Amino acid sequence: MRVSLIQLTADIDPDANRQAAAAWIERAVEADRPDLVTLPEAFTLIGGGQEARAAATETIPDGPTTTLLQELARRHRITIHGGSFIEAGPDGRAFNSSVVVGPDGAILATYRKIHLFDVTAPDGQSFRESERFAPGTELAAFEAGGFRFGCTICYDLRFAELFQHLARRGADAFLVPSVFTLQTGKDHWEVLLRARAIEHGAYVLAAAQTGRHPSSGRQSWGHSMVVDPWGTVVAQASEGPGWITARLDPARVQEARRLIPTHRHHRLIEPWDG
Fold first, then answer.
1. Which of 146, 191, 207, 273 is the most exposed place for a label (fewest CB within 10 A)?
2. d(CA 67, CA 62)
3. 154 is catalytic
């Protein structure tokens, strides 16, 4: 199975961001003929205030982003994982959501980000994702190309138990669309992606935002990558928008799990209250 990861530098114009994503998908498909394409987190909007977020908020399945992904998937007969975008939610808050579309345009999965990024970065910049988004509550996975892909988004990467739950439900590959900050990315991005792959003998596909986003001044780490089940980085993006392509081999999953069968050795441990 061939997969392409699209790396972007989104800004505050959702239409322009969707057009950029579509253009990179077209280029990746023409050059590499992937079976699956995945986009980064927040690929329709980064920056702007409440008004910009409200304008970029949409519904699934009838919003412009899902419609575009369906058109592209049908045209090229591929599966498209739509990174994440803003989905209308309850109580004035939205969800940070992924949608996955199959080659016939059917929606294969919808995932709403469970772990929200409420963090003060080392440079003092504060992020309070929970002020804008409601947390999701359900796991999501889908089948494509002989693999079962578990869905996560960005900050979810730091919560190993989420990946454990997905692996118990049969996931042998994980998707991690992201907007990692420059400071956390340089120290934690690669090591966390490789750890999740090693823990489960699974592929990890992480499409990311990159560079400075003009309207907000925020800098994203980028370095989109594919990690194989042994923890080896088999493809990694350079700086700037673009794409990378890699081949996923189910035999690599089988071999990693044969050599170190953590999936058979895992034991549930009760919380310690002492």
1. 273
2. 6
3. yes
